[in-house]
């Protein structure tokens, strides 16, 4: 059974047909009522003694047992029917069948079955019908019971009032069962709606992840076309020029070959940078800062000195937050390598009163400082936000956080701030 078929307390979900009066309570009440009805028949025998059986007592016993069997069959049929006219008819038939046993004596073991029959009238038809049944049975029982006992109506009235009172108790029981059924049905609908909503969230998350990957691939393709394509064109032109002038100016030809060699190394380095940026290496079972260490290690092969500082504490990040954290670090390392030509990068994971903080800071070499604006990225005097930073900002905003990027002194700083209430859960220490 799937997890979507489990209710909120871990029990298996029931089908719609089983929900209305289908819990274990009703079958138990029905079995007890039938047992009481059978005992009522035997009580008629014991009142006269087995040795003094008459045809009348034997007929009464057989009648009670026959009625008990018919009621059991009707209740079994009712359980298999869907809520509606079929169940309503079954409940009416049971109540009519019980009028006979009620007339065989005063308030007795027949009453539990009568009470349950009136309760099922409430469940299957309504409260008004059950009250009408109470009045009808009482009105029929008054003259007939008086006749069978040989008493006056005044002497029989207390017994009839007792029967009516117990039937009213059955009506109240039916109201309780109806409310219980309504609560079960509402819980069933809520669980179904919750499962559908969770499934929609899973699908949307999967689609969003695919869209994010597609956007990253599109960005990579665009920048590879602009950067790597330009270098490959430059290599081709240098080699072509060298082949034309090598016969009469070999020194110039060898210079162009050297330019082509240097450009090819730059192209290979850029390709490796993109491979690291789009396919980060993570440690096996690495989560949180351990995963950041693996990402940092993959960039150290480029010559960058990458340092990771963990001030986050014992927090376990949600999957969406962890993915955004890795993408932010990847973006910061890629930009430090490609744009700033940085030598050192410091990655900080910290917890503050405002939430989770991830920062990537890299030095700006002296020969690159003039080209880096002092204002933050996206501001009027700052650099325009590229596709990578814009995508990170949108994802952070959806989670209630923010992303900022810009120059701080002689360093460039990319920060991600996310709130705790949505994204971080304290780890529980294991029991010793």
Task: Give the key terms.
single chain, alpha+beta, Single alpha-helices involved in coiled-coils or other helix-helix interfaces, five-stranded mixed β-sheet, 12 helices, 7 strands, transmembrane helix, kinase, transmembrane, protein dimerization activity
* Biggest beta-sheet profile: 5 strands, mixed
Q: How do the helices and strands follow one another from N- to C-terminus?
A: HHHHHHHHHEEHEEHEEHE
Distance between the termini: 34 Å
Could you estimate the helical fraction of the residues in percent? 55-70%
Domain Signal transduction histidine kinase subgroup 3 dimerisation and phosphoacceptor: 216-281
Protein name: histidine kinase
Catalytic activity: ATP + protein L-histidine = ADP + protein N-phospho-L-histidine
EC number: 2.7.13.3
What's a quick, concise take on this entry?
It contains twelve helices and seven strands. The chain has helices spanning 25-46, 55-80, 85-97, 99-102, 111-124, 127-149, 153-245, 250-278, 289-300, 319-338, 387-398, 420-423; strands spanning 305-311, 315-317, 344-352, 355-363, 402-408, 411-418, 424-426.
Molecular structure report:
Residues 216-281 form the Signal transduction histidine kinase subgroup 3 dimerisation and phosphoacceptor domain. Keywords: ATP-binding, Kinase, Membrane, Nucleotide-binding, Phosphoprotein, Transferase, Transmembrane, Transmembrane helix, Two-component regulatory system. The chain folds into 3 domains: 21-189, no CATH class; 201-274, Up-down Bundle (Single alpha-helices involved in coiled-coils or other helix-helix interfaces); 284-426, Heat Shock Protein 90, CATH 3.30.565.10. 63% of the residues lie in helices and 11% in strands. It is built from 12 helices and 7 strands. The strands form 2 sheets. The protein has a 5-stranded mixed beta sheet. It has a two-stranded antiparallel ribbon with strand order 2-7. A hairpin with a 2-residue loop joins strand 5 and strand 6 (411-418). Helix 1 (25-46) runs antiparallel to helix 5. The chain starts with 24 loop residues before the first helix and ends in a 6-residue tail after the last strand.
């Amino acid at each position: 059974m799937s997890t979507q078929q489990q209710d909120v307390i871990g029990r298996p979900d029931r089908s719609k047909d089983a929900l209305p009066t289908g819990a274990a309570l009703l079958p138990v009440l029905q079995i007890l009522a039938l047992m009481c009805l059978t005992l009522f028949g035997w009580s008629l025998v014991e009142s006269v003694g087995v040795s003094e059986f008459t045809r009348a007592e034997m007929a009464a016993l057989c009648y009670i047992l026959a009625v008990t069997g018919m009621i059991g069959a009707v209740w079994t049929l009712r359980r298999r029917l869907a809520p509606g006219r079929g169940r309503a008819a079954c409940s009416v038939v049971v109540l009519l069948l019980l009028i006979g046993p009620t007339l065989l004596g005063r308030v007795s073991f027949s009453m539990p079955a009568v009470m349950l029959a009136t309760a099922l009238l409430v469940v299957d038809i309504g409260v008004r019908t059950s009250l009408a049944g109470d009045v009808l049975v009482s009105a029929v029982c008054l003259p007939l019971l008086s006749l069978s006992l040989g008493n006056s109506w005044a002497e029989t009235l207390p017994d009839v009032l007792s029967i009516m009172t117990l039937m009213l108790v059955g009506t109240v029981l039916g109201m309780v069962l109806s409310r219980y059924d309504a609560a079960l049905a509402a819980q069933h609908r809520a669980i179904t709606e919750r499962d559908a909503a969770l499934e929609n969230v899973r699908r949307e998350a999967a689609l969003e992840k695919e869209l994010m990957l597609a956007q990253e691939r599109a960005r990579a393709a665009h920048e590879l076309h602009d950067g790597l394509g330009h270098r490959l064109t430059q290599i081709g032109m240098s080699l072509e020029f060298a082949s034309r002038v090598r016969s009469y100016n070999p020194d110039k030809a060898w210079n162009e070959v050297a330019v082509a060699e240097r450009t090819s190394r730059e192209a290979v380095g850029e390709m490796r940078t993109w491979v690291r940026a789009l396919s980060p290496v993570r440690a096996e079972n690495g989560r949180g800062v351990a995963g950041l260490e693996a990402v940092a290690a993959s960039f150290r092969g480029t010559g960058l000195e990458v340092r990771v500082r963990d001030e986050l504490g014992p927090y376990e990040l949600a999957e969406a937050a962890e993915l955004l954290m890795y993408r932010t670090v990847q973006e910061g390392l890629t930009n430090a390598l490609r744009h700033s030509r940085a030598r050192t990068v410091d990655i900080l994971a910290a917890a503050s009163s405002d939430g989770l903080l991830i920062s990537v800071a890299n030095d700006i070499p002296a020969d690159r400082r003039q080209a880096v604006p002092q204002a933050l990225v996206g501001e009027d005097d700052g650099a325009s936000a590229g596709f990578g930073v814009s995508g990170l900002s949108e994802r952070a905003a959806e989670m209630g956080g923010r992303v900022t990027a810009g120059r701080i002194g002689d360093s460039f700083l990319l920060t991600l701030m996310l709130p705790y209430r949505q994204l971080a859960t304290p780890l529980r220490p294991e029991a010793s």
